[in-house]
Amino acid sequence: MPISQALVTRYFQLISGRQFAEAERELERVKQKMQRTEWNRGYFRALYGMYLTRKSSATDDYAFFSKIDMTDKVALHDYRKEFLEHMRNGLHGDFDRGYFSAWADCMRILTRLNLGSPNNKSAEGKIETLRSDKSQATIANFLKEAKAKENEK
Fold first, then answer.
1. Residues near 101 by Cβ (< 8 Å), separated by ≥ 6?
2. Contacts for 25-28: CB closer than 8 Å, 24+ residues apart
3. Which end of the chain has fewer beta carbons closer than 10 Å to its terminal beta carbon, N or C?
C-alpha cells in the first residue's frame, strides 16, 4: 500500500506552520500505514529529519531545511527537480530513492502553500517588537494604559 498523499501533505503543512504536536501525530499515522520496505524507510527517515530540523530552535548551518526560503517558489521548484533526478537515478538504492522522493514531495507541497514573506513574522503568529523603539505600540503598553485609565475612573 503506497503512502497516503493526503497524510503527507497535511504533515508538510503542519511542519511548515511549526505545529509540531499535530505534525508528530501525523508522522505516527504515516508510519503505521506504510509497509516495511527500504524505499518507505528512506521516505520516513526524510520526514522525521524534516520534523527534527524544523523543530530545533537553533539554526544549523548544515541542515538544508533550516536554510531554504519557503517563500521562494522558483528555488523550491529547482530543488524539487534536483531531488527528482536523484530519485530516478538507478545508482541510488531504494532507501536513498525513498529519501529523495520525500524531499521532492516536500518541495512540491511548499510551492503550493502560501506562507507569506520571510520578513512577515505575523504569518507565523508572532509579532516582532523592537525594545529600543519607544514609539512602537505593544500589547504590554496597551494593557498598562488601559489599566491606568481604569484606575482613574
1. 39, 42, 43, 46, 83, 87
2. 27/51
3. C
136: enclosing H helix or E strand: none
Nearest to 8 by CA among 50, 38, 36: 50
Question: Where on the phi/psi map is residue 136: left (φ > 0), alpha (ψ -120 to 50), or beta?
Answer: beta
- Give the model's pLDDT for residue 33: 87
pLDDT tens string 69-101: 778 889 888 989 999 998 898 888 899 999 999
Chain mean pLDDT for the chain: 78
Task: Classify 58 as helix, strand or coil.
Answer: coil
Rounded CA-CA distance 118/81 in Å is 23
**CB contact set of 108 (below 8 Å; sequence gap of 6+):** 80
